Amino acid sequence: LDEGTPPEPKGTFVDYQTTVVKYSKAIAVTAQEMMTKSVTNPEELGGLASQMTSDYGHLALQGQMAAATAEPEEIGFQIRTRVQDLGHGCIFLVQKAGALQVCPTDSYTKRELIECARAVTEKVSLVLSALQAGNKGTQACITAATAVSGIIADLDTTIMFATAGTLNAENSETFADHRENILKTAKALVEDTKLLVSGAASTPDKLAQAAQSSAATITQLAEVVKLGAASLGSDDPETQVVLINAIKDVAKALSDLIGATKGAASKPADDPSMYQLKGAAKVMVTNVTSLLKTVKAVEDEATRGTRALEATIEYIKQELTVFQSKEVPEKTSSPEESIRMTKGITMATAKAVAAGNSCRQEDVIATANLSRKAVSDMLTACKQASFHPDVSEEVRTRALRYGTECTLGYLDLLEHVLV
């Protein structure tokens, strides 16, 4: 971190801030795991120490860049010294892990390792607070994005409960008891969205406030929608899933919007990141509107299926946009996995044809839920398999093209069912 002149920074402080947070948190997670393994499986400490070493290597490089781009200079100095301090903490922890592997039953070394792991966790929080001083607004965006990804994971679990037929209200309330609360909270979220978008161009304090507020509102909205879904009763799991999917779409759009806001913070008005921000805000508004329409359709049995299908078509279009983007997936998977996922499309197609023939609302709702999952799984698997290291450029291009064509064909089928 101190030696020689640092390489010329290619990005802004915000870019480096995000990656420093990522690696710092990864180190904190590994330190916690080392505490656990020191008691249960000391033989696994070596792998965790290697992981920590690798993460710290990335952190040192990104920390150097964050320090070089931070304003004012003393904040850069603080970031650098705190990242160095964390490095010393990691050295002690790794040394204790080595000592414990030599003598796995030594309770004194175990105690020392736990102390060292706690020290590492504390030093991580000092690095994070130094970054916050660098830009309070973007740091709040990073924190809010973490909170929103927690909500999305929680909603996935709720969908599992609903599908299994175990999502019930604790008392005899009806959906009408929750409707107003859902609508009111959704409107508050729209206001937060406006503040987020304008926050990108205003002060770090205003941006921080908007990010915190939107995270609090989406948490509240997810809770009231879950209560509303539970009040429908487990004898209609498909409608429960439609409702939870609608709020999950809003949460995913908010996560993207927070990311776009962070990327556009303090950039000029003609910067490409500003166009991304406008696009993300548009998707966010579309998804909130879709949630409101779904809430209104829930009590009207004659339009439930139609509404669910419209929401699924919109969702698949958004997933296709992500699939077609230049972004490389975080992990790759085997071509076999991609082939396995196409079976879901075959099943969903048969279900869609049957629903088109029966035109019963419940069949259409079931088709909407199944289609959403089948197409999403197929697109994820197709993109991950196309970026597998063994796949040639030519095969990748073809796989991505067929993934798109398959999705467009499926959308066409759903449009026909809707008609």
From TrEMBL:
Keywords: Cytoplasm. InterPro entries: Alpha-catenin/vinculin-like_sf, Talin_IBS2B, TLN1-like_RS, Vinculin-bd_dom. Gene3D superfamilies: Talin, central domain. It holds the Pfam family VBS. It is found in: Cytoplasm. Residues 138-302 form the Talin 1-like rod-segment domain. Residues 305-417 form the Talin IBS2B domain. It comes from the Eukaryota. Residues 12-136 form the Vinculin-binding site-containing domain. This is Talin-2-like. It comes from Galeopterus variegatus.
